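User: Could you check the structure of this?
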Amino acid sequence: MGCCVNVIAEVSQILTFAPMLKRFTAILLLVALIGSNCSRFFVYAGFEVNQKYIADNLCINKSKPWLHCNGHCYLMNKLRQTEEKEKKQEREEQKSRYQEALPTNPITIVFIEPTVKVEYPPSTIPGIMGRASSIFQPPRV
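Assistant: Sure, the predicted structure tokens are below.
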């Protein structure tokens, strides 16, 4: 009797843990999906948080204070790098899609030559058709 109670208690703990695990997995996937599409936002946020440090230590134009750069050159550099990285990833994805679309086995196509020769009868309508036949000819097979 005591053994059954312990098993039931363990099963109930597992069952209450399963929805929490599903929720955690869903949140983790959602964050990963949003994070991959919002890389520019993370660059901007990192710049805003660390702007004082970037302006003092990492700025290319810190020796030219009249430009009032305040680290924006570093921000533009990072944005260009992330854009190039995204383009490179997109090109790699397109290459993989292209490779998946190609057939793995060679395809041989055999064209059968037509055996029927079509001959058009001469026009029996006098007038316009007689004059046009010297210009317009049916295709020769």
